[in-house]
Amino acid sequence: MIEKEYLKKAILEVKESGSKNRKMAGYLVRLMSKPKRQRISVNIAKLEKLSNDGENVIIPGKVLGRGTISKKINVAAVSYSNGADGKLKDAGCKVLEIKEMLKKDNVRIII
Questions:
Q1: What pTM was computed for the model?
Q2: Is the model's pLDDT at 19 over the cut of 90?
Q3: CB-based burial of residue 91 (10 Å sphere; 0-12 exposed, 13-18 middle, 19+ buried)?
């Protein structure tokens, strides 16, 4: 799916989801609604540094492939670079959609 279409769909799903934490859902919508130049980009190295094994993480932007990851985390993002997608799957991380992640408990937003 094209990133722009996925982003529109994800924003709508976050708004409509009866998310357990409405503050977090509102914050996610604000971050994902920014113009593309201002949107968040997170490298895998930052995920490695800031997350713990088994943690649920949402990135309201793009995950980039710089760095390595050894932790098995659950990740949801608007989009992934080819390198990041491969590295996450090779490390045993679960790559989920944002709507699936919102159903989970103890979700962190990394920006």
A1: 0.83
A2: no
A3: middle
* Predicted confidence (pLDDT) per residue in 64-79, tens digit: 999 999 999 999 998 8
Amino acid type, 101 = M
Are the beta carbons of 78 and 101 closer than 8 angstroms?
no
CA dist 2 and 5 (Å) reads 5
Q: Structural domain of residue 12, as residue ranges? A: 3-109
Residues 14 and 25: their CA atoms lie apart, in Å, by 6
Q: How many domains, the chain?
A: 1
CATH number of the domain encompassing residue 78: 3.100.10.10
